[in-house]
Prior knowledge:
This protein has 546 residues and is α/β, with parallel strands linked by helices. The chain folds into 3 domains: 3-162, Thiamin diphosphate (ThDP)-binding fold, Pyr/PP domains (Rossmann fold, 3-Layer(aba) Sandwich); 183-340, TPP-binding domain (Rossmann fold); 346-536, 3-Layer(aba) Sandwich (Rossmann fold), CATH 3.40.50.970. The chain has 22 helices and 18 strands. A 6-stranded parallel beta sheet has the order 2-1-3-4-6-5, with helices on both faces. The chain has a 6-stranded parallel beta sheet with strand order 9-8-7-10-11-12, with helices on both faces. A 6-stranded parallel beta sheet has the order 14-13-15-16-18-17, with helices on both faces. The longest helix is centred in the N-terminal third of the chain and has 15 residues, at 47-61. The protein is globular and about 75 Å long. The model has no long low-confidence stretch (mean pLDDT 94).
Amino acid sequence: MKASDLFIKALENEGVEYIFGVPGEENLDFLESLSKSTIKLILTRHEQGAGFMAATYGRLTGKPGVCLATLGPGATNLVTPAAYAQLGAMPMMMITGQKPIKKSKQARFQIIDVVDMMRPITKYTKQIVDSNVIASQIREAFRLSTTERPGAVHLEFPEDIAQEDCSEEIFDVVNYIMPKPDDKAIDAAVEMIQEAKMPLLLIGAGANRKITCQALGRFVDETGIYFFTTQMGKGVIDERHPQYLGTAALSSNDFVHAAIDAADLIINVGHDVIEKPPFFMKKGGKKVIHVNFDPAEVDPVYFPQLNVVGDITHSVNKITDQLEVQTDWDFSFYQKVKEEVKGHLSKYFQDERFPMLPQRLVNLMRENLGDKDVITLDNGVYKLWFARNYTCYHPNTLLLDNALASMGAGLPSAMTVNLLYPDKKVVAVCGDGGFMMNSQELETAVRLGLNLTVIILNDGAYGMIKWKQEDMGFSDFGLDYKNPDFVKYAESYGAHGYRAESDSHFQEILSRSLSNSGVHVIDLPVDYSLNHPILNVLLKQKTAEL
């Protein structure tokens, strides 16, 4: 059969539903084969949008999201999504085209070494040089993409190889069972927890698996041990739980860090050092048990004393089975911290000043969205407010990136959520800077008939960097810009555009947007004036008092 037909057949064998991408002339044989497939092509307006959509598909389903680009500039535009997926442990497969490799008449036009470019930011990257290895290389790429720790893979499919005749051979998808942890490691973990006086549980992104959520919920319910999460571990256990302390949105000097500092043992489930540190370890300080699929990478701020390596769900269940609740565990300080957190986080929830405080927006979003509705965040200082203040009831209901922390992912991620879960309400919260980096995907969303709401937090500046600039005592310089008329901009794509004029007006617009079909874009002026006094000054004072 034709090699490009075999390639598509191998993708169908892997259960691929969508291919997100921007094809080029080097992909035309692939495109022709795809036109006869059950796989749906999602044509985007930029390769970066396609990559972010594919990565989010992988994050939500556990199956590699697939994206497509041509050679040269098409492939280079996938570099950021590749790093996004690789650092965020999201399974994703990239397919790029290439000029004929056996006989090219165009010299070096558009040609760069894409395979070598992808090597540092993927788990696997290959140029297909023989059509008879297509099926095996696709199977291996998919296997590696989903193996813990998941990540990005890449195959380059040259134009002349795509046109070859080849044997029709497909490899079965063979699953595997993650090895169970060593009994000695379980025994050691149980002993360390029982000897501790103030143990504390940390839940990271690697614990965000359906069965693991149940195991961790059982652990907390049966032991009474308090827990907190990393930014990407939010919602693994319902955050209305009485033992939930908060999210480590910062690395230090937040209320939750008062509890962390007081703990003599942290049971760290599913975290790795790629995510921004939720706390800093010090020599001679608290002990840490690392429970994960792989041993901990030793880092200057993270060097656990015990590794419990293997299937996380099995590890947590085994520890719970063997653990005896200790009468000398003292969680009274954690309860004090929890009450302080609750009082402080809700302080500005009812503040109706306008432009709107991010804390107020967080509260309004929680009030207007259902338990399983989804918010996707772009990257900006508002991400900290959502991570700290937004209460998640279920996993993957607040999608944020705390690994690469790339701007431009908020809108494409929301689009993928709506494709996969059309019955859920989806809201993308973006800064004006991040929104403009992939705003062209509004056309894609409208063309696909998607239903979602985009809230643009408009401060006319790169607000995260301005906050850091103020904290360092530097002058306000070099970070302000002008925005387009976002209402007209949205309408030019066929979306609904709104500009909020007051707190009550925003609530009216939000309710209308969430209740109606289509793409809705809301320009919301935001007030970041409290970022520095709260996050850099007040929190240090308050946590010191605790």
